[in-house]
Design goal:
This protein is an all-alpha fold and 74 residues long. The protein is 80% helix and 0% strand. The protein is built from three helices and no strands. Helix 1 runs antiparallel to helix 2, helix 1 packs antiparallel against helix 3 and helix 2 packs across helix 3. It is elongated, with a radius of gyration of 14 Å.
Length: 74
Amino acid sequence: MITAYPSLPRDLIERCETLSRRLATHPSAGTARRLDDATHTLCVITDTRQLDTALFVARRQMETALQRQRSLHR
């Protein structure tokens, strides 16, 4: 599994959530395509196959990275 720089999963999580909300309120092919692209990338970096699982794993990865940073600064 790829370990991404912490800002990448954070950006992808935000992008997926924003695009999901936008698609729900204003459906369009362009928004659906951008959501598919962001979902695919998030699934690749988390080694998952579904958006909900990828979001969960990415959040856990970010949490772990933050804990490591905190422990290094103590």
